[in-house]
Design a protein that fits this description.
The complex is a heterotrimer of chains A (303), B (339) and C (324). Chain A has 303 residues and is mostly helical. Chain A has helices spanning 27-36, 39-56, 93-129, 131-146, 149-160, 164-191, 194-201, 206-214, 219-242, 254-262, 270-296. Chain A has a single domain (42-51, 93-296), classed as MetI-like fold, CATH 1.10.3720.10. The chains are: A mainly alpha (303), B alpha/beta (339), C alpha/beta (324). Chain B: It is a peripheral membrane protein.
């Protein structure tokens, strides 16, 4: 083998600092990439978008509304005019389902927003301050936890009275407990991490450590838990409406529709099946998204 | 006679960004009763090499792309998983870095040790317990009968590593692979484990592959050393060759970047500049060229071939080419002393 | 190195109570640091070595007041830091900084490198706007990185690079004393040398004083002027680094030195090792008298009865052993 003459001339080095060759990726981009690669999660997301369109855009294309009775067309089976049929007051089930979806989604997102706020603040303080205060705050949570969910929600609903606003309140204060526990746990494990110690040796104040260092690092977990709490809230609302403690007419939610349809099962099962199926699809979609998010935010470091 | 022959082994991991060539074209052998050290920094492919030998590469994303691994003449790469399970633990024993996580916390030590024996040798429980006790004594654990009834958390770190060694040796394997067995331990405990391994090497006729990043650890235990860098073997030779007459600039770098306890004056350390290559896009020429103080034009374009220096000693470096400028280990010493 | 004492630690004790739960009234505690004393001079490097669990990291963290001391004092430039108010402590924090062990855990993964380094400037209102940016670039260059790196996130860097970012963060406030808490033990050998050389260069340029905590005695010997050996929360021997290697007097130091493998087969095969029996006792209930007596090959009766004090054996070589 003959080599070029200058093969063995020493190289001159000019570069003094290190360069990074890999493209810059933030943790968010990384999570997004993993999420996109998960077919179930992406499917769930697409279905959710379709349901949102159905609930929020659909009513503009409907010839009917959710409250006007049409007693000449009661309990019609599905047809071209009423694809989902009509209910016992002659209202178009498809249109009612659109509005019901709106309400269900609003309840899902709304109540999670409330519990997010309470849960993060409560869990954050409990985890960071620690010691006696943490102990007291946790015992309070234990007490709430020791009362069965269902009982607690029903009691509160009876106490406050049914109605949309109260559902928000009740579901909001129902689920923050889980959120607070998760946030606290995350913060406890992170409190002794060296980057937090480093901030403390620099003299960072408590709010700074909490909001700049601790909470941003729990965001992934918080998102995952929220995504799994939304369907739980929707389901709880459906259940409350089903037993008559939920939204009140003329407002309509999917659970309320299912309850109405229940009375007509023998001959007119469609009045139950359509709203029930919508609830089921919605739950599935959210659960797939939640699982996908959990995998996407997996704390394992990038290879 | 060669017990283990690895020939042209290449193992890659397929990630979203592309193929990471963790090990590429690695060939070496281990003779019977011999202790070989594989030295290199994290990410150099030393762990992937032995995981390939054990066929423990997670697939996907990992895959043994190429090459042969022959244990006493049998090619392990093409062996069905079932056959391989019989080899793991029985013919090849393995000790891992972290003794805390490699034992099952909910089973007693006795149960874990006898399970291996019952599984591989099909002997009865009492006989297995007797053998387990014998091996615990051998690794310096007193009162073995009582110890066998205890759970891993009742052992200290050093004791757990002894248990791991006893477990790895239970079926009299032909080959023992120790992957950084002392890295997680304190120095005084490391000394205990090293003494034990030295002692065992003479007692049981097992070949040993010792993986470490600590040159001091291999110096006392191994007769031959393989230096890996960037997924390739850059130099191998007898321990004397590697420490007294190293020929690859990376080996020089390794030897000079660690301070010696027995050095009399406070001399400046000579670090290896920069960072190891990204094996996602391995450099075209020599993997070490970007960090090598003696790099030449050719180093960036063509990978160097092995030059045999003696029967055991070979290195892959262009400096060994007859036309290259003469630079030696001690040669740089003088040059650096002047500057 | 001058004769000015920058840090004086007197009889520092740090115990951690173990929370045994609601019902237990038993007051068990971890005796992490059991009365250590030493002086640190301006421009000096003092190595603090010992095995895991010997309390060296706790000592470092207590000295920088990440933990409150159980008793004892740490006088930084003449003032006991445990007596200082929050506001006074802020000025001390500008003079005393820390470099951490784990380059993966010591940088907030959600912040850019620029913000990580800039945080010190923000907290102490040292610079803002363009001045802040310039200062960050300057610090990055000091540690061998460049301005392009400021907008990247920690996970994009290698271990050695991350450790340099950690150093830049500590340097941002222009400290006088840096506590290095095992800054190299998580790094590869070739990278360790880079960091150690950088620390040595910075010491020369900026006149820094280091408290260098590590378990790797050969590296500590290389970087330190003096070394203190710790065992179960006590200092057992303290002297200049060469003297410690040439004339170790405490049996533990002797064992520690002989346990370290030397990268030379000739030396390694000829050496005879002092191999200690067993492991370090639990710091929850340490042995009576001399803590080392349970593993000491020379232990005698008095070792179990009285605790040996540090004695000067000439030239400032202090040893805590009854047999010396």
């Amino acid at each position: 083998m003959s080599l070029p003459l200058d093969s063995f001339t020493p190289l001159q080095r000019t570069q003094k600092t290190d360069a990074i060759n890999r493209p810059s990726t933030t943790l968010w981009q990384d999570a997004r990439r993993r999420f996109k690669k998960n077919p179930l999660a992406m499917g769930g997301l697409i279905v959710l978008i379709l349901i949102c369109l159905f609930g929020f855009v659909g009513p503009f294309f409907s010839h009917f509304n959710y409250y006007s009775n049409d007693l000449s067309h009661t309990l019609n089976p599905p047809s071209w005019v009423h694809p989902f049929g009509t209910d016992e007051l002659g209202r178009d089930i498809l249109t009612r389902a659109m509005y019901g979806t709106q309400i269900s989604l609003a309840i899902g997102f709304g109540s999670v927003l409330i519990n997010l706020t309470i849960g993060i603040i409560y869990g954050g303080i409990s985890g960071y301050v620690g010691g006696r205060i943490d102990n007291l705050m946790q015992r309070f949570i234990d007490i709430i936890f020791s009362v069965p969910d269902m009982l607690y929600v029903i009691l509160l609903m009876v106490l406050l009275g049914s109605g949309l606003r109260n559902i928000f309140i009740v579901l909001g204060i129902e689920y923050w407990v889980t959120m607070a526990r998760i946030v606290r746990g995350q913060i406890l494990t992170m409190r002794e991490q060296e980057f937090v110690l480093a901030a403390r040796t620099l003299g960072a104040s408590t709010p700074r450590i909490l909001f700049k260092h601790l909470l941003p690092n729990t965001v992934g977990q918080i998102i995952v838990v929220s995504a799994l709490q939304i369907p739980a809230a929707i389901f709880m609302e459906a259940f409350l409406s089903f037993i008559g403690l939920g939204v009140q007419p003329p407002l309509v939610s999917l659970g309320y529709m299912a309850a109405e349809g229940r009375g007509n099962i023998p001959g007119y099962a469609f009045a139950l099946i359509f709203p029930a199926a919508l609830i089921a699809i919605l739950m599935l979609a959210f659960n797939f998204i939640g699982d996908g998010l959990r995998d996407a935010f997996d704390p394992k470091m990038r290879k | 006679m060669a017990l283990l022959e690895v020939e042209n082994l290449s193992t890659s991991f397929y990630t979203y960004a592309g193929e990471v060539q963790s090990v590429s074209g690695v060939s070496f052998h281990v003779d019977e009763g011999e202790a070989v050290g594989i030295v290199g920094e994290s990410g150099c492919g030393k762990s992937v090499t032995v995981q390939s030998i054990m066929r423990l590469i997670p697939n996907p994303p990992g895959k043994i792309k190429n090459g042969q691994i022959r244990l006493a003449g049998r090619d392990l790469v093409r062996l069905p998983e079932k056959e391989m399970q019989k080899i793991r633990g029985k013919e090849i024993g393995m000790i891992f870095q972290d003794p805390m996580t490699s034992l099952n916390p909910v089973l007693t030590i006795g149960r874990q040790m006898t399970e291996v024996l019952q599984h591989h040798e099909g002997i009865g429980k009492n006989e297995a317990l007797g053998r387990a006790a014998k091996y615990l004594t051998m690794v310096g654990i007193s009162n073995p009968e009582r110890r066998l009834k205890q759970y891993p958390h009742e052992f200290s770190g050093g004791m757990r590593q002894r248990v791991m060694i006893a477990m790895a040796l239970l079926c009299n394997p032909k080959l023992l692979i120790a992957d950084e067995p002392t890295t997680a331990l304190d120095v005084t405990i490391q000394a205990q484990i090293l003494e034990l391994m030295k002692d065992l090497k003479d007692k049981v006729n097992t070949s040993i592959i010792l993986i470490t990043h600590d040159l001091g650890v291999v110096a006392g235990l191994c007769s031959r050393i393989i230096v890996m860098y960037g997924g390739k073997i850059v130099e191998m030779g007898s321990t004397q060759d590697i420490f007294k007459d190293p020929r690859h600039p990376y080996t020089w770098g390794l030897l000079k970047s660690v301070p010696r306890l027995d050095a009399s004056k406070r001399s400046k350390l000579v670090p290896i500049v920069g960072s190891p290559p990204d094996l996602l896009n391995p450099p075209k020429g020599c993997g070490f060229a970007a960090r090598c103080p003696h790099a030449m034009k050719i180093c960036e374009t063509q990978p160097p071939a092995y030059t045999d220096l003696n029967e055991k000693h070979r290195a892959a470096c262009w400096l060994l080419h007859p036309d290259a400028p003469k630079v030696t280990f001690n040669g740089i010493d003088e040059k650096e002393a002047r500057s | 190195m001058s004769n000015e004492v920058i840090l004086e630690v007197n009889n520092l004790v740090k115990h951690f109570p173990i929370n045994e739960g609601f019902l237990s009234r038993e007051n068990k505690k971890v005796h992490a640091v059991n009365g250590i004393s030493f002086k640190l001079h301006q421009g000096e490097t003092l190595g603090l070595v010992g095995e895991s669990g010997c309390g060296k990291s706790t000592a470092g963290r207590t000295i920088i007041r990440l933990y409150e001391a159980t008793s004892g004092e740490a006088k930084f430039m003449g003032r006991n830091i445990y007596d200082l108010s929050k506001k006074e402590m802020m000025t001390v924090r500008r003079d005393m900084q820390m470099i951490f062990q784990d380059p993966y855990a010591s940088l907030n993964p959600r912040m850019t490198v620029g913000d990580i380094i800039g945080e010190a400037l923000d907290i102490h209102h040292l610079a803002s706007g363009q001045k802040r940016t310039n200062r960050i670039y300057e610090l990055l260059e000091t540690v061998g990185l460049n301005s392009e790196h400021a907008n990247r996130f920690p996970h994009e860097f290698s271990g050695g690079q991350r450790q340099r970012i950690g150093i830049a963060r500590a340097l941002a406030v222009n400290p006088k004393l840096i506590i290095c808490d095992e800054p190299i033990s998580a790094l590869d050998v070739s990278i360790q040398a880079q960091i150690v050389n950088m620390l040595e260069e910075l010491q020369e340029q900026l006149g820094l004083t280091y408290l260098f905590i590590a378990h790797d005695l050969s590296m500590v010997k290389h970087i330190s002027h003096r070394i203190a050996v710790m065992y179960l929360g006590r200092i057992v021997e303290i002297t200049t680094s060469q003297d410690l290697y040439d004339h170790p007097m405490h049996p533990y130091t002797q064992a520690l030195l002989s346990a370290i493998p030397i990268p030379d087969p000739d030396v390694e095969l000829k050496r005879s090792r002092i191999v200690l029996e067993g492991g370090v006792p639990s710091p929850i209930d340490p042995p009576s008298g001399c803590y080392f007596r349970t593993r000491c090959p020379k232990a005698q009766q008095q070792c179990a009865q009285t605790t040996p004090e540090l004695k000067d054996c000439g030239n400032g070589h202090l040893v805590a052993c009854h047999l010396v």
